[in-house]
Amino acid sequence: MKKFIFLFGILSLLFYSCAKNEKGARNAKNTENKKNTPSVVRINISSEPDSLDPWQSAAADTVSVFSNVFEGLLRSSPSGELLPCIASDFNISEDKLTYTFNLKKNVVFHNGQKLTARDVLYSYNRFSGLDGKKPVSNKFSSVRAVSAPDDYTFTAELSKPDASFLALCRSAILPEGYTAQAEKPVGTGPFKFVSYVPGQKIVFEKNDAYYDDKPKVDMVEVYIMTNPASVISALRSGQLDIAYFINGNDAKLLSSDYNIFSCAQNMVQLLALNNEYGPFKDIRVRQALNYAINKKDIIDGVWAGFADELYTNFSPAFKIYYNDALSSCYNFDVEKAKALLKEAGYADGFDLTITVPSNYEPHVRAAEIIVSQLARVNIRANIRMTEWASWLDRVYGKALYEATVIAFQGKIEPNDILARYESENRRNFIRFKNPDFDKTLASALIETDLEKRISMYKECQKIMTENAASVFICDPSLIVASRKDLHGYTFYPFTFIDFSVWYYE
User: Fold this and answer.
1) For residues 443 and 255, what is the distance between their CA atoms, to the nearest angstrom?
2) For this UniProt entry, which residues form the secretion signal (predicted)?
3) Contact, 225 vs 241, CB < 8 A?
C-alpha cells in the first residue's frame, strides 16, 4: 500500500510558480471609492455560464468561478500538486487497481446536508455510468466498481492501471438526492452560490460553515462583460475591483495606478498545419515553415511581449513535463527555410490559405504577421476569415483546411494535452500520424512510475517537434489588474479564479 503523501511528494515540483508583478502608485479613484464595502470583490468574465450544474458545464469561464462552489476528493495547489480536499488521505493497492479514500468528517454541503461516502458513491456511479445511465465523462471508463464500506470510506476499483485517474478525483462531489443543481447549485466549497442574472452578473457569498480556512471576503460579484474596453472603463471608474484577462497593451497603460499580475496561462497558440495537405505531406516543408516564422514578432505584435515562446505543444507551466531541450529547435532562419523548400521541390514556393476564426482577434493578427513572414520564403499565403461555427465544423471537425491559427487551453493531466495528436483520435485535426508517438503515449497512460512517465511525455513532445507537426508559437500570459489595496490574487496552471485567498489591506 502506498500512502498519499509518498506518492505525491515529488509532484510539488510539477509546475513553476508564476511571478506576480506589482507596479505603480495607489490609484486615487480606488482609494476614494469607499462606497464599495471592502468585503465585496467585483470581477469580470467574458461569457455566460453554459450550465450551473458542474457535471454539465465545460466552458472555461464557468469552471473558473464555480470551482469555488464545488470540490472533489482531491484538489490542486497553485503549483499543480494534488492535495487532499474532501478526502483526508488515500491508499493505493500494490497492483495499482484499488484506491481507498478516507473522507473528512466535518464536511457539510451548502444545503446543510452532511457529506458521507454515500454522496461520493453516488457521484462516482454517475461519473462512470455504473448506475446504468450515460456516464458524465468517458474519462472514467477505467473505473470497474465503486463501494462505500462505511460512512467515511470510499473505494474505487479500476479495470487496468490508469495514471490519469487521480487527476479525475478533482471532479465535483454532489449531494445524493439533490435534484436542483441546474437552478440552485450546491457544493461544499468555500463560497456558496447566491444568484445569477443572465447578461449581468453571478453572485457568491462566503460559506461560514466551511471546514477549512474561511475566506477573507464576504461576497464576490462576477460581472459578465464581453467588451474588453468596457472592462478597462469599469476598473477605472471603480465599478470593478479586478479586471480579469486583460491584454498586454492595457496592462502597460494601467501599470502606474494598479497592481498588474501576469503568468503563463497554460495555453498554446499555434499555426496548425494539415499534414495531409499537398506540400505539408513533406516533413521538409513543415520544417521550413518552423524556420521561416519569427515568433518574437508575433509575441511583440499580438501580445505586447506578454507571452512565452514555444517549440512544443506543451506550455512551460508544465515545468516537470515540459521538454525544454527542444527550445534550440527551429531558431528563426530564413535561409535555412529556403534551402529546405528548395530541397523539397518548392524553391518557387506555393500558395497557402490560412483559415482563421474571425471572432478571435489575436489569431487574426498573428495570421497577418505570418503571411508577411512567409512571403520572405516565396510562400504566397492569404487569410480566409470564417465564423466560429464554420471553423469548428470544417477545420476542427473535418480537416477541410490547409493551415489555421488557433490556441488550445492546456489541461492538468499531460495525457489530455497529447491525446489529441494520436493517429486515430477524432480531435487530431492536424492529421499528424506517427506510430512511435502513439506507442509512447499509450505506454505513459498505464505507467505509474512518475519518472518514467515524465520521460515518455518528453519523448512524445520530441517526436512532434522533430517531425514539425505544426508551428507552435507561444503561450500568451494571463494578465490581471487589481486595485492597489486588494491582495492575494493567485494563479493556477488551469482554469480557476480562487476567491478564497483575496483580502483588502
Assistant:
1) 47
2) 1-19
3) no
Does residue 433 have a pLDDT over 60? yes
Other Cβ atoms less than 10 A from the Cβ of 124: the count is: 26
User: Exposure pattern of 84-101 as b/e (b: 16+ CB <10 Å)?
Assistant: bbbbeebebeeebbbbbb
Could you give the CA distance from residue 162 to residue 447 in angstroms, rounded to a whole number?
Answer: 8
For residue 191, which phi and psi values (nearest 5 degrees)?
-125, 145
Choose which CATH entry (3.90.76.10, 3.90.1150.10, 3.30.360.10, 3.30.430.20) describes domain 2-17+52-183: 3.90.76.10
The confidence band for 80, taking pLDDT boundaries of 50, 70 and 90, is confident
pLDDT attached to residue 38: 55
Please list, in sequence order, all residues whose beta carbon lies within 8 angstroms of the beta carbon of residue 211, skipping any fewer than 6 positions away. Answer: 104, 106, 107, 108, 188
- pLDDT for 182 equals 95
Per-residue confidence (pLDDT) for residue 81, from 0 to 100? 80
Contact 110, 116 (CB under 8 A): no
278 has a pLDDT exceeding 60: yes
Dihedral of the CA atoms 113, 118, 124, 129 (nearest 10)? -110
Q: Contact, 448 vs 162, CB < 8 A?
A: no
Distance separating alpha carbons of residues 141 and 312, to the nearest angstrom: 29
Domain range annotation of the chain: 2-17+52-183, 267-477
Cβ(148)–Cβ(154) under 8 Å? yes
Separation CA 97–CA 268 (nearest Å): 34
Distance CA(355)–CA(365), nearest Å, equals: 12
Contact between 267 and 317 (Cβ < 8 Å): no
Q: Which three cell numbers stand for residue 127?
A: 461519473
How many Cβ atoms are within 10 Å of 10's Cβ, its own excluded?
A: 13
Q: Could you tell me which CATH number the domain at 267-477 has? A: 3.10.105.10
User: CB–CB of 454/321 below 8 Å?
Assistant: yes
Is residue 23 within 8 A of residue 260, CB to CB? The reply is: yes
Mean pLDDT (whole number) for 83-92 = 97
Task: Give the Cα separation of 329 and 480 in Å (integer).
Answer: 32
